[in-house]
Design goal:
InterPro entries: CO_DH_a-bundle, CODH, HCP/CODH, Prismane-like_a/b-sand, Prismane-like_sf. It catalyses: CO + 2 oxidized [2Fe-2S]-[ferredoxin] + H2O = 2 reduced [2Fe-2S]-[ferredoxin] + CO2 + 2 H(+). Keywords: 4Fe-4S, Iron, Iron-sulfur, Metal-binding, Nickel, Oxidoreductase. By secondary structure, the protein is of the alpha/beta class. The chain has four domains: 54-240, Substrate Binding Domain Of Dnak, Chain:A, Domain 2 (Up-down Bundle), CATH 1.20.1270; 251-396, Rossmann fold (3-Layer(aba) Sandwich); 428-629, Rossmann fold (3-Layer(aba) Sandwich), CATH 3.40.50.2030; 637-662, no CATH class. The radius of gyration is 26 Å and the shape is globular.
């Protein structure tokens, strides 16, 4: 019996045309998705959980605490502020640990590559040497793999480091920011150590001062942003190549009716890269043809999709909220997953089709899935085993529906290096043109729109916010599922300059760049930290990230990783606005996040639930930074008289009686 949906033909929560098409077709009629579960839940979220005042950190509770009522504290006496701070810190630790485990796998893969194991090789030697310098590694007259091996070993040591010396890459931050971290005692040390200390300090009966708890939460977040995430991004670039601009497609319509369709979903690029290589292997292509398929079509989902989109131009079929819909087309032979953001419902949805959910990581198995362990030491062999299993499903394909591909190209691949080159050219690579255009007002500022999708709000929320920013001449940097969503909206290509204010449009048209720069997956937010720091070092916009006319948002955050990202931006001096935080039930602690952090950090969290008002808040914060820098003043037009012209040219070669002023 077909499911009766409230609006798959007009649901206000689904605006993506391809999603609506798939949901309305016969193959999807009996599929229950997250959209259906949201509608059926019929109850609001727990007020104690939403406000952050439910404590489960010991077995005397759980304790549900109401702020301001004397006898409504925890059994141990913990107040709403203490409980909310502990819960917030644990969210930061969980999000940081996800990036940390991801990064550790990348470092191990990097070391294997340096040793000559597997099919990969060092592709970006210049970046290898640049990162080696950060770690104090000599590079002159040394073999590339020798440098890489030493770098990999030193990078791996960052995870378990026990000394008080800060992580190596914190030296990339501005001098002022490093001084702030040192003064507050929050310069991150060993990456794993910071997560462990958060968990210890939030155990029952340990740290009971919310400001002190937040110092360790900040140190933990910084170990992610300036440690694990930055390591993962940099080493991935060195092995697989630093992204450069390329065109591709983001849409469910990238699935092919006559090819083996395999969706790659998750976060660790080692698996995805191996699958990309194996899919071009003659043996695999011959097996596909033997099964009656014309080829093998890989399509990305979620952040793995962003990784292979950035480096290889392989299309993205779906973001987080569309992962079930991708299977509901009936056209997938397999969805290959590793870790993070993978819904348990996928196995249930796949039961109605010939599709297999193939899990590949021992950390993340799923009841109803097929497990094929990915071996990082034999990545190509593992990838071929996975593909072989998927290819054999092609003959089992039944009724399917693939929406017509929406021809909304995306232009992606904007690493820090690409932006530098794009603005200044090969021999004068520089952020100077960007800074100058911000100072002269053509670009009012920079906004980072990052993070997840979320079923709680309409799927055009990112588009609504970004259109407002662009109209106000604000350049947008995007990562993760936010970037995928904006790609579906037609905003991640140079043609989108038509949606900008006149001056930003002029800059985009001159340079030939999109007004929304796709910078990668959620782990790649570290690129934004590097870019922001480079803007400061270029001069003219203050002496720290906290001075920049810039702000970040993850308006549809779902994952704990998003909170960790948000907090490492705040601790780095950048304003951040989310639509909600699980802290509203603790008045003093909530005020500390939204105001009090400005004192020690030079930045704070902001909360705004309405998307339009959120966008307006971002514009207002950027304009306030411009005012503080003194660059909102319009220069008075000056007409030069003859004496002024002579002064202007006095020092030029040939000036004098035969010079230009004569």
């Amino acid at each position: 019996m077909a499911i009766k949906r409230n609006g798959c033909e007009g649901c206000t929560e689904i605006t993506c045309a391809s999603t609506k098409e798939v949901m309305a077709q016969a193959p999807a009629q009996n599929v229950i998705t997250a959209y259906d579960r949201v509608q059926k839940r019929g109850m609001s979220a727990c007020l104690f959980g939403s406000g952050g005042t439910c404590c489960r950190n010991c077995n005397m509770g759980p304790c549900q605490i109401i702020d301001g009522i004397e006898d409504m504290v925890g059994i141990c006496g913990a107040t709403a502020d203490t409980v909310a701070a502990r819960n917030f810190a644990r969210v930061v630790a969980a999000g940081s640990s996800a990036h940390t485990d991801h990064a550790r796998e990348m470092v191990k893969g990097f070391i294997a590559t340096a040793k000559g194991e597997g099919p990969h090789q060092i592709k970006d030697v210049a970046k290898l040497k640049s990162l080696a310098a950060v770690f104090g590694i000599a590079t002159e007259d040394r073999e590339v793999n020798e440098i890489a091996l030493e770098l990999g070993e030193k990078a791996l040591a960052e995870f378990g480091k026990q000394s008080e010396e800060p992580l190596a890459m914190t030296k990339r931050a501005t001098e002022k920011r490093q001084a702030i971290w040192k003064k507050l005692g929050i310069a991150p040390r060993g990456i794993d150590r910071e997560v462990v200390e958060v968990m210890h300090r939030t155990h029952m009966g340990v740290d009971q001062d919310y400001e002190n708890i937040m110092l360790q939460a900040s140190r933990c977040a910084l170990s992610d942003g300036w440690g694990s995430s930055m390591l993962s991004t940099e080493l991935t670039d060195i092995i697989f190549g630093t992204p450069v601009p390329r065109r591709s497609i983001v849409d469910l319509g990238v699935l092919k009716p006559d090819q083996v369709n395999i969706a790659v979903h998750g976060h660790e690029p080692l698996l995805a890269e191996a699958l990309c290589m194996a899919a071009q292997d003659p043996e695999m292509l011959a097996l596909a043809k033997k099964q009656g398929a014309k080829g093998i079509n890989l399509a990305g989902v979620c952040c793995t999709g962003n990784e292979i989109l950035m480096r290889r131009g392989i299309p993205v079929a779906a973001g987080f909220v569309q992962q079930e819909i991708c299977i509901a087309t009936g056209a997938l032979e397999a969805m290959v997953v590793d870790v993070q953001c993978i819904m348990e419902s996928l196995a249930q949805v796949a039961k109605g089709f010939h599709t297999d959910i193939i899990t590949t990581n021992y950390r993340a198995k799923m009841s109803g899935g097929v497990h094929i362990q990915f071996d990082e030491h034999q990545p190509l062999e593992s990838a071929k085993q996975i593909l072989s299993h998927a290819i054999k499903n092609f003959k089992k394909r039944g009724q399917f529906f693939i929406p017509e591909e929406k021809k909304l190209d995306v232009v992606v691949g904007f690493s820090h290096e690409t932006i530098n080159y794009m603005l200044g050219g090969r021999f004068r690579a520089s952020y100077r043109p960007l800074n100058d255009n911000i100072i002269n007002g053509r670009i009012r500022g920079v906004a980072a729109v990052v993070g997840c999708d979320n079923f709680r709000l309409a799927d055009d929320t990112h588009e609504l916010i970004v259109r407002h920013l662009l109209k106000n001449n604000i350049l947008v940097l995007a990562t993760g599922c936010a970037a995928t969503s904006l790609g579906r909206s037609g905003l991640v290509n140079p043609e989108a300059a038509r949606f900008c204010g006149d001056s930003l449009a002029e800059v985009c048209e001159t340079v030939g760049m999109p007004p929304v720069l796709h910078m990668g997956s959620c782990v790649d937010n570290s690129r934004i930290l590097i870019a922001a720091t480079q803007m400061v070092r270029e001069g003219g916009l203050g002496d720290d990230i906290s001075d920049l006319p810039a702000i970040g948002t993850a308006p549809l955050w779902m994952s704990e990783k998003a909170v960790a990202i948000g907090h490492y931006f705040v601790a780095s001096g950048a304003q951040v606005v989310f639509q909600d935080l699980p802290t509203s039930g603790a008045k003093r602690f909530n005020k500390y996040l939204l105001e009090g952090l400005m004192g020690p950090m030079g930045a704070h969290w902001n909360v705004e639930s309405d998307p339009q008002k959120l966008a307006e808040l971002m514009v207002a914060k950027i304009e306030a930074k411009r005012d503080a820098l003194g660059i909102n003043k319009k220069a008075e037009r000056v007409l030069f008289d003859m004496a002024m012209r002579r002064d202007l040219t006095a020092g030029l070669p040939g000036a004098g009686c035969h010079g230009p002023a004569a």
